[in-house]
Every structure is written in structure tokens, then in C-alpha cells.
Amino acid sequence: MPFPVPSASTLTIAAATTAAVTIPPTIYNMFWGENKLPVEGRLVVITGGSQGMGLSVAKLLSKKGASIAIVARNPTKLASALAEIEACALHPGTQTFHAVSADLTQASECARMLDEIRVWGGVPDIVWTCAGFAVPGFFKDLSAQQLEEQVRTNYFSVMFTAHAAINMMMRYPLRKGVPRRHLVFTSTVMAFYTIAGYNAYSPAKAAIRTLADGLRQECILYDIDVHCCFPATIYSPGFEVEQTLKPELTKILEGSDEGQTPDVVAEACVKGLEKGQSLVVTNMLGEAMRSACWGGSPRGCWWWDTLLSWVVAVVWLVLGRMMDGDVHKYVKKHGIPMRGKKAAGPREGGIGGPGERTQMFL
Ligand SMILES: NC(=O)C1=CN([C@@H]2O[C@H](COP(=O)(O)OP(=O)(O)OC[C@H]3O[C@@H](n4cnc5c(N)ncnc54)[C@H](OP(=O)(O)O)[C@@H]3O)[C@@H](O)[C@H]2O)C=CC1
Ligand SMILES: CCCCCCCCCCCCCCCC(=O)[C@@H](N)CO
């Protein structure tokens, strides 16, 4: 049977109906949509809240009237961060603030941390994980210990925190007048597309996205909303350390990303969460990268996200090759980068000359 080709008028009617059904609600939501993440009078836990993005999120939510508990390892940094967060309070008399020192790579510490917070201020309404950091470097050059540390810090800490939080939330009834609880994870745009030099970090961050996708559905059972944020470069203290370790090639590949301050990233994330988005990005680069990777995740504004994904599919034909081209160009000019040394010198002849391959292992 031949494939039935719809007529031009059928297609026009289909397109007009789709637009009529989808565009007005988007416009309505843009101006009159309710805030899907009200925080005034709620208790929010923020892991990694002692610096960078986590601290900015904590200050912003404090300004919006939330009580805040921050978690990180270093008690000195926690104490000074807590003072800053407290100084931002909307209702200084009624909001409360607390800091817990814990190493969240350990399951038992995640459970203890949440328990301490429950005893201090009750069951949290929102748990937002920001703890994490990258140790950039070529995969072959990182030690097994560094590989493991990246997975523990970036993925295990989120997995264990979410596990402990959901279990606690299910043991206690919702606070009066609070219809839902929220889990918010922090990943990175490199969960959508990653580059040379981040291949211990990005897989762990991509796992967070998958956890968010799966838990979003599972937690419908418990009236818990699950979201995941995907910032691009954040000019944070952690980023400054990263820069000292980052291979030259990684800096070249990252080139097109302008970077944002922690405050700007926090604002953008909260804005997306207030709109009720599941996958939240913070700038246009994030939008473009996310649009290539929707999979089964719920779109924010589906017609815009779908249109953008078509554009990016075409642009990527060229851009994806340019990114790989940068690697080819680099190795041609500098040779294979060697650990602890500058690049090994210009490569002669074709890619992967036998001499150089051997040198790598000496
Ligand atoms: N910086 C960037 O360019 C980007 C960062 N991200 C992600 O955003 C989040 C925030 O990044 P950024 O603002 O750079 O943060 P920073 O690296 O500046 O700070 C990290 C925070 O996490 C805490 N932390 C680290 N390890 C642990 C641990 N094992 N247990 C408990 N707390 C821990 C740190 O405190 P302490 O050391 O005292 O424990 C600190 O508060 C991270 O998840 C990061 O991966 C995403 C995209 C880009
Ligand atoms: C159409 C699609 C365009 C895609 C262009 C791709 C360009 C790649 C940019 C990579 C940016 C990396 C940000 C890293 C942030 C991060 O997570 C680290 N700083 C870790 O902390």
C-alpha cells in the first residue's frame, strides 16, 4: 500500500490547530502562570551551599523568605556563608538558618545530615543538591583514585542525598498548607554534550540527569517534584581551581562558552523552577545543548523546544565536526599532550604516527 501523502490543506489545518492549541497556554503561563516553586516560609536544604552557585542559591532563597540549611565539609567556610545567607533574609525574625558539616560521598553522612536538620527545623520541603566539583584532565592521565572521587563526589552524593531525603519525606506528613515537596539536582550542560578533558566528571553528571528523569516519574507517587539544573561555566571558587588543572585543549574546546556569575546562574535556575520546568538551563548555550537531548524528559515550552531541536540538528552537522576538528588541529600543531609536561611537540606525518604512540607509554 503506498504511503498516504497528506494534502497541503490537511497539513495547514494540522499546523494551525497545533499552534492554536499550544501557543496560547504558553503565552498565558509566561505572564500569569503560578509560581511552581514558592519558598516563603518553607525549609530548604542546599548541599554545597558554602560557596559558588550553592551559596548564591541559598542567598536568593533567603531573600525570598525561605529558612535555609546549608551542607558542605569545611566548617569555617560554612560559618561565613551562613552569616551572608542570614543577612539576606526577607523576614529576619522568623526565618531560621543552620549549617551542617558532612562529607556527602558517604550514604550514612547524607542520612545523618538530614536527620540533624529535621531535629533542628523539621522535614525539609525542598532539597537542592549543588555539592560537586570537576577535576579536569585527560582520562588516561587521571589516577583510578581521581576517577573514583569524581563519581563519588558528583553522583554518589546526589544519589545518597536523594535516597535519604525521599525516605525521610515519606515518613513525615507534609507541612500544613504545603501541597508538594521538591528535589532539585545540579548537573552541567556537559551532561548533554561533553568534551575532551572532562571525561571523569561528565559521565557522573549525566547519571544525575538520568536519576532525575527516573525519579521524576517515580516520585509522582509521593507528591515530590524532581528537577535538574544544567549550568554552563560558573565563575565560582571551584572553577578557579579547575582552571589551574585544565588541559589547553579543553580550554580551546570550551572557548565559545562565556561563563556566568554564581548569582546569575542561581537566578536563572530559580526562574526555570518557578515555571515548573523539569530540565532547567541558564543561558542560550544551555538551551541549544538541551534541545539536542530531550529524549523522554518533559519539554518546557514544547513548540519552541521542538523548533530549536530541528535547528540544532542542522547546525550540529557543521558544529560537531568543527569541535572534533579543533582536536585534530591541536594534535597536528602540538603533538599528543603528555601528563606533567607541555604538549609533546608538533606531530609529523599522519595521525598517530607509531613513534609518538610508543613515546606515550615510556
Ligand atoms: N563551576 C562550573 O563551571 C560549573 C559547575 N557546575 C556544578 O554546579 C555545582 C556548583 O559548582 P560551583 O559553584 O563551581 O561550586 P564550588 O566548586 O565552588 O563549590 C562546591 C561546593 O560543594 C561542597 N562540596 C564538595 N564536595 C563535597 C562533599 N564531598 N560533601 C559535601 N559538600 C561538598 C564544597 O564545600 P567543601 O569543599 O567545604 O565540602 C562547596 O560548598 C557543582 O555541582 C558543579 O559540578 C555545573 C556547571 C558548571
Ligand atoms: C548547538 C549546540 C552548541 C554546542 C556547542 C558546544 C560547546 C561546548 C561548550 C562546553 C561548555 C562547557 C561548560 C562546562 C561547565 C562545567 O561543567 C565545568 N566548568 C565543570 O565545573
Automatic annotation (TrEMBL):
Catalytic activity: sphinganine + NADP(+) = 3-oxosphinganine + NADPH + H(+)
Lineage of the organism: Eukaryota, Fungi, Dikarya, Ascomycota, Pezizomycotina
EC number: 1.1.1.102
Protein name as catalogued: 3-dehydrosphinganine reductase
Annotated organism of origin: Morchella conica CCBAS932
GO molecular-function term, one example from the UniProt record: 3-dehydrosphinganine reductase activity
Purpose: Catalyzes the reduction of 3'-oxosphinganine (3-ketodihydrosphingosine/KDS) to sphinganine (dihydrosphingosine/DHS), the second step of de novo sphingolipid biosynthesis.
Pathway entry: Lipid metabolism; sphingolipid metabolism; Sphingolipid metabolism
Coiled coil spans: none
